[in-house]
Structure formats: structure tokens, C-alpha cells
């Protein structure tokens, strides 16, 4: 830049600088001075913002260098969002990612021991044609006298695992609050291996073994034996029987939102080659809210989810985001071939451990949100107390099971109440129902 030396010598340049930067605010500002004030203010603000940004960024990287090197399995931004909350999900994605990446989850770990046979227990055991069910409804209870008044059960033989009763009731309560429908009927839940054998034999004799294999699980290989499964139907006024629940119309809400309560549609349309069974819109399986959220959002099967989980270690867990700000990390630990297995778990977070039914354990950790439902540490407070000494050989209690429910289950909620078990006009046994899902 060439400066006029005459102006400098005559003091004109110095006067220009003084006029520009030394402003007498007691007098009206000239146009030139107004522009100069705005320019200086903008320039100083930009410099300060840049300095603060780089200082803060360097501090975050220094505190958590593992973020860039461990590569936690955070769900990509272009992954399929949950249908009912896509707007909410995308609006908080950045905040959630920052929360997960700044959490020192794996810095404080301890270990717990699990016996090898425990791989066959838990609400995430995979039961299909390749993996038989070792679990046999040890904790099932009849729903007839403990269900809410917003749905129907076929009769007192309809039983589910006691740990999922609250989730079942809340799902149908919420459905009723929206649509006012009470004709949804739970047709069946737990089935013993011996009953499954009767169903399979009858189907094979009537329609052939090939057809039977597409609809009915062989004895010992049915998910119904776990107690974490139920089939839905609709109350038929004219007494006809069969599977009339198709998950369409107003009932599509149940099939779309069941993941919020820990349930998945087990046998998906177009996935028959993976599940081994035909599409069943009435067949629901409990796997817990974190797993159900991921499975339903991705449109995958339980088998495909298990394949993904086996790739995840506690150093690189799968991170799952819930609709309401919940964040979970989940990972897999292969079991020792015999004896006990040491399972790494975090010291500072709630977690649950479930067997997978074939080779190891799945650990699910609650990072942020409402915690892990049915965690072993507060299992009884959520599921109630069940006296097994009062059960017969089939697991049916002689006296009605009376669990204690939380209206809004949270870890520290001290206000509990007994759920109303008063019979309604819809509680009558549905004796005419004689056909139901047989898988």
C-alpha cells in the first residue's frame, strides 16, 4: 500500500486516524464514524468468538481423546428415524451425540461372574428353529386378575412372565386413551413344550409337515415357552374363532409403538427366510425397550440384531437413542465354554445382563434417561412379589398374583399403588376361542 508522504508530513494522515478511531460521543456522529463503530464492533466480536471456540475445542479433546480413536458405534445421521418421532429425534441428535461422546463410560469398570448355564436365561434369549428353549416359564403368571381394564384375555390360562406385566398393561392403557377401543384380546402367552407338541402334531397331520414348519414351531423350539411372547386377536361378537388381528387401522398404533414398551413384531413380512416363519402381525415378543427401539427403527429381525450385537465389545458398544432423550450402550461378552465368565460392567451406571441362549451375554447400560427396566437390582420393585411355593407344576398360582405398580415407573419414585383388579364386563372368559397363533 502506497501512502502519500506529503499527507504524513503535514499531519493529515494522523488527523484521519484520530478522526476515525477517536470519536467524541458527546456530539452527533458523522456517517463515517457510524460505519467505523459498526466495523470495529463486528471485527472484535468475530475475533473473540474464534478464540473462545478454539480454546473450548482443545479442552474437550484433551479431556476425552478416546472419542476420535475408539470409534463408538453411534447411529449415523442418515439412519432411519422412528416413524412416530422423526422431528423430535433429529432436533436433539447433536445434543445426544455430544452427551455420549463426552461420557467416560468405560473408565470405571468392574466385573461380575455368570455361570455358563445362565446364557439360557434372560429376556433377550434368541429362540428359533436353530436354538431350542431351555427356559420354561418359571416366572409366568396368569393375566386374568392382574390386567388393566383396557383389553381382554381369552381365559385364565393366558400367562406371561411376571416381569413384563406392567409393560403390557401400560401399552394397552395408552392405546385405549387414544382410541377408546377395548376389543383387543390376548389370545395366548406362555405354552409348555408338551402343549406345543400337541399343536405341531395336529398341524402336521392336517396340512402336512411342510406347511406345519412354516407356521408352527417344533416342541422345545417355540418362543411361547419363554413367557416373553403373546398373540393378539379381536373379540368376535358372533363367536367365530381364528386370528382376526391384522395390526391395521387403529390397531396399527400397537404394531408401530410397541417398541416403546419393550416389544417387537417377531415375524416380519419379507423376512421369512431369516425367521423361518410366515408373517404374523399378531405375534409380539418382549426384548426390552433399548433393543426394541433399535430393532423397530431399523426394520430388522431379532436374528439380525443378535448378529450386530456380537460385533460390539465394551470398548466399542452399540449406542441406541430413545425417543425421549434416553441413551443406552449395549455390548456382547462371549461365555467361557465351561465354568464362570467374567463380565465387564460399569460402576457408575445402571445395567442389565441377559443370556443370548447360545454363546454369551448381552450387557445393556443406561447412560441417560429412565434407566434400565427390570434391572436385576430393582426387579422385585417393578415386577411385584411372586410366591413360587404357591404354584402348581405348570406355574399357575393358587392365589391371585397382586403386583405393585408405579404409575410412571422410575427408579426413585416412592409413590406406588395397587393396580385396580376389579373385574369388568370385558373380563369374561372367551370360551369360543379355539384357534390361535401356533408358533
What fraction, in percent, of the residue positions are helical?
25-40%
Shape: elongated
Cα Rg: 30 Å
Query: What is the oligomer described by this structure?
Result: single chain
Tell me the number of strands: 15
The appropriate CATH architecture of the domain at 129-286 and 412-439 is: 2-Layer Sandwich
Element order, helices and strands? HHHHHHEEEEHEHHEHEHEHHEEEEEHEE
User: What distance separates the N and C termini?
Assistant: 86 Å
Profile the largest sheet: 5 strands, mixed
- Return the average pLDDT rounded to an integer: 74
Walk me through the structure.
The protein is of the alpha+beta class and 439 residues long. It is 31% helix and 17% strand. The longest helix is centred in the first third of the chain and has 33 residues, at 31-63. The radius of gyration is 30 Å and the shape is elongated. The strands form five sheets. A five-stranded mixed beta sheet has the order 3-5-6-8-7. Strands 9-10-13-12 form a four-stranded antiparallel beta sheet, with helices on one face. A two-stranded antiparallel sheet has the order 1-11. Among the domains are: 5-63; 129-286 and 412-439, Muramoyl-pentapeptide Carboxypeptidase, domain 2 (2-Layer Sandwich). The chain contains 14 helices and 15 strands. α8 packs across α9 (209-215). It has helices spanning 5-9, 12-21, 31-63, 66-70, 86-91, 93-101, 165-179, 193-207, 209-215, 252-257, 272-275, 289-298, 302-309, 379-383, and strands at residues 109-115, 140-142, 152-153, 159-161, 184-188, 229-234, 263-267, 280-286, 318-321, 327-334, 340-346, 350-355, 360-368, 404-405, 417-418.
